[in-house]
Amino acid sequence: MSVKIDFDGQVLNCRLNGEIDHHTALPIRLETDDRIENCRPEKVILDFSDVTFMDSSGIGLVMGRYKLLSQFGGSLEVTGLSNNSYKVMRLAGLDRIATIQKGVKLNGNK
Fold it and tell me: Is residue 36 part of a domain?
């Protein structure tokens, strides 16, 4: 699992790649949190388009970034979710704290 992060001055784009599980979530959290704290973005986009597997650690990843962002007044968007991941995140209630989209990449392609 890896994450590629870009910041344009307002939006922090985090492109996740590979599997998200108990072992891979910690380095992702540390890297994204560091960038959020240093950049203080207006919005963070977590792009799951290239995630091949996700367990409940993916839900924790989203919830934790929301908590951190809310301290700075930022918003969170989760995009590129598979149909199953989209359903799981909605069932977990994450659509109440973030914009949740399935199958939409950051560049607008499906």
Answer: yes
Domain that holds residue 66: 2-102
| Residue 107, domain member (yes or no) | no
- pTM higher than 0.85: yes
102-105, long-range: CB within 8 Å, 24+ apart, which pairs? 103/49, 104/79, 104/80, 105/47, 105/49, 105/79, 105/80
In a domain, 74, yes or no: yes
Phi-psi region of 58 (alpha: psi -120 to 50; beta: other; left: phi over 0): alpha
Q: Identify the CATH number of the domain in which residue 66 sits.
A: 3.30.750.24
Query: Is the pLDDT confidence value at 107 over 90?
Result: no
Query: For residue range 19-76, what is the model confidence (pLDDT) as tens digits?
Result: 999 999 999 999 999 999 999 999 999 999 999 999 999 999 999 999 999 998 999 9
